[in-house]
Amino acid sequence: MKLKKILYYFGKINASTDVMLNIFREIIGDFPVFDLMTMGDNPEVLVDKFCKATSSAIFSSITLTTTLRNSERKLLCCIPPRTLDEVKDGFYFINSSFIEQDIFFKLAPQPFSVGAERYAYFALDTSLEQANRLVIKKYHDIKIGTIERYLESVEIFNIAYFFSTKFNIAAEQVGINKKVTFSDVKVLYDETDNTYYSVEKYISNAKFKKFKLNSGLITEFHSILEAFAHFTYKYTEGYLVAYDLQGADLHNENEWNSKMFFAKT
């Protein structure tokens, strides 16, 4: 399938195929798995999930395989803070040295989504034998050669990653088998036109919801994310708190992939 450039997708109805999926991954690497599991015996729910998953797979596949742009660029990564003191250090990220990685990728010619601040493009990381799917984002109003806003995204991810690891450990210690994870954000630098982008892994079949607005208003209550927000405030002794929580349920509410911002209190 790799030689034929076939993009493989799988629709999971129940856990009976888990062993088979693991064998497939050993052979062809990672691939998107659509959650088609339903509660009860309502076939309309299954059909609705199947149609949405199929539409998503077709749209992203056509977008990725029809692009003509194949590029080599550099990924800029930084080391996440290891202590609360480093999180509070206003110069930690300014003084951090970036780790550069070469990346070969194929970028869709048109964005699949246009948000209030950024365009979002499908992309394929072709650096490895198994192509990984990415989402590359570009700000609308950023001048060429300006990196500050993109570094802010990386800083937010690294701080969020720090708190999520502490939170998951604390939750496990009290018998809570739920986790909060965050999308790994890196900066992509294009030397040919001196342009920056943000890059993160594409999460298939994930519907991101907004749970808490910038004002702190809860739009949809979810106990694990509310607990995480409260944890950031208590852990830092009131220094900061998480807000503008957005996330997607990855494994039947046992793991949440989230995006967020922080506010100093």
Describe the structure.
The chain is an alpha+beta fold and 265 residues long. It contains 6 helices and 13 strands. It has helices at 18-28, 43-65, 84-88, 92-95, 148-173, 223-235, and strands spanning 10-12, 33-35, 70-77, 99-107, 113-114, 118-125, 132-139, 179-182, 186-190, 195-201, 209-210, 240-249, 255-264. The strands form 3 sheets. Strands 3-4-6-7-10-9 form a 6-stranded antiparallel barrel. Strand 9 (186-190) and strand 10 (195-201) form a beta hairpin.
Question: How many β strands by DSSP?
Answer: 13
Range of strand content: 25-35%
- Counting DSSP H or I runs of 4 or more residues, the number of helices is 6
Rounded average pLDDT? 77
Rounded radius of gyration (Å): 20 Å
State the helicity in percent bands.
25-40%
Uncertain parts: none
Overall structural class, as computed from helix and strand content, comes to alpha+beta
Helix-strand sequence: EHEHEHHEEEEHEEEEHEE
Task: Give me the secondary-structure topology.
Blueprint: E1 10-12, H1 18-28, E2 33-35, H2 43-65, E3 70-77, H3 84-88, H4 92-95, E4 99-107, E5 113-114, E6 118-125, E7 132-139, H5 148-173, E8 179-182, E9 186-190, E10 195-201, E11 209-210, H6 223-235, E12 240-249, E13 255-264
Parallel strand pairs: 1-2, 8-13
Antiparallel strand pairs: 3-4, 3-9, 4-6, 5-6, 6-7, 7-10, 9-10, 11-12, 12-13
Protein name: Kinase-like protein
Domain Alpha-type protein kinase: 90-265
InterPro entries: a-kinase_dom, Kinase-like_dom_sf, Thr-specific_kinase-like
